[in-house]
Write a structure and sequence with these properties.
219 residues, Rossmann fold, alpha/beta, nine-stranded mixed β-sheet
């Protein structure tokens, strides 16, 4: 989606996509992704004010979030009572409270020099936030940022796209393979039908909703 779309959602407080709890999949699968390593550099693209970033920081990770909305970034630090140092970094405004850094700006302006090296990308809500015409560009840009051996912890939703207008958009397993298989080993860690637990999506007309968790490792 265009930057203006997401900025407007935050300005109008239309943030039903923001989760008030840490994702269960983090505690279930993080050790499989971290592989026993500490001090990992974790990138969280299109992070909003997700509490998952706090959880990751408590696992001794250095977390860098990227978010286009200054409202979301400010709220993250204020709501969690964190005092941040704020500075300019090229096209971004950098908010820093060790071990958390949030870069406020356009993800597509992100370059390797803006990062401290990335071991893991945590993509809970980025790929599914983008329409089909933007997902290829997103995957290509992310791939270019990552060194060999970097991992992606990816969460997707899949449903009959004609039944609901995104975001979140439907992303199938086959699309994940189309986007990433050239450069990544891909493993599906979990896949479950979750519509019965998501009444808001039922109200939007969905007849099926599949949530999948993937582990990707760059060749």
């Amino acid at each position: 989606m265009e930057i203006d779309f997401w900025q407007a959602r935050w300005e109008q407080n239309q943030i039903g996509f923001h989760n008030l709890d840490v994702l269960d999949h983090l505690s279930r699968f993080w050790q499989s992704v971290a592989q026993g390593q500490n001090d990992l550099n974790v990138l969280v693209p299109m992070c909003g004010k997700s509490l998952d970033m706090l959880w990751l920081s408590k696992q001794q990770c250095h977390v860098t979030g990227v978010e286009v909305s200054p409202i979301a970034v400010k709220d993250f630090f204020n709501e969690n009572q964190l005092n941040a140092e704020v500075s300019e970094l090229d096209h971004f405004k950098l908010w820093h409270h060790h071990p958390l850094k949030l870069l406020c700006g356009d993800f597509f302006q992100l370059q390797p020099q803006h990062l401290d090296g990335i071991d893991v990308v945590y993509d809970r809500a980025s790929l599914i936030a983008l329409p089909p015409e933007m997902r290829k560009d997103y995957a290509q840009h992310l791939t270019q940022l990552l060194p060999r051996g970097a991992r992606i912890f990816l969460v997707t939703l899949d449903y009959p796209q004609l039944e609901m207008q995104g975001p979140p958009f439907a992303v199938s397993t086959s699309e994940v393979e189309d986007l990433y298989a050239t450069n990544f080993k891909i493993e599906c860690l979990d896949s479950q039908a979750i519509l019965d637990n998501e009444p808001s999506f039922k109200k939007r007309g969905l007849t099926h909703l599949q949530e999948s968790v993937f582990y990707l490792e760059k060749y």
